[in-house]
Specification:
2 domains, 5-stranded antiparallel β-sheet, alpha+beta, 5 strands, Thrombin, subunit H
Length: 128
């Protein structure tokens, strides 16, 4: 897609709300947001992967081709898969840590119970 076609188009940002593309080149978009007259610069086309969405659905659909090519070129899908595997491993590690802590607590309680019952038996035996 020609980035020149994006100039003047309305975009929606997750946090900043509605804005208008003021400048565009092959690498960057400059957007002015209505909320507080905030001006921001975004990397093109990666900004449409996470932050921005065009209000014009037809342009958004044609933009998907550029976005897919960018994902392919920058290995985004592979990086997202790696991140997902990393997060699952971290969750597994944390779950094992919690299970280990629980087993330690149970062992400490059993040990305390055994000591208490041993002392009680020893006291009863000495009272006899």
């Amino acid at each position: 897609m020609e980035t020149k076609n994006l100039v003047g188009e309305s975009v929606i940002h997750k946090a900043f709300g509605i804005g208008v593309v003021e400048k565009a080149d092959e690498k960057y978009l400059e957007v002015i947001f209505q909320q507080g007259e905030k001006k921001s610069v975004f990397a093109y086309p990666s900004c449409f992967n996470t932050f921005l969405r065009l209000e014009n659905e037809e342009l958004q659909a044609s933009l998907q081709e550029d976005l897919q090519q960018w994902k392919k070129d920058s290995n985004v899908d592979h990086k997202e898969a790696l991140k997902s595997r990393y997060m699952k491993r971290q969750q597994g590690i944390r779950a094992r840590q919690i299970a280990t802590e629980e087993r330690k607590e149970q062992a400490a309680r059993r040990s305390m119970e055994l000591r208490t019952s041993y002392r009680r038996e020893k006291k009863e035996a000495s009272n006899e």
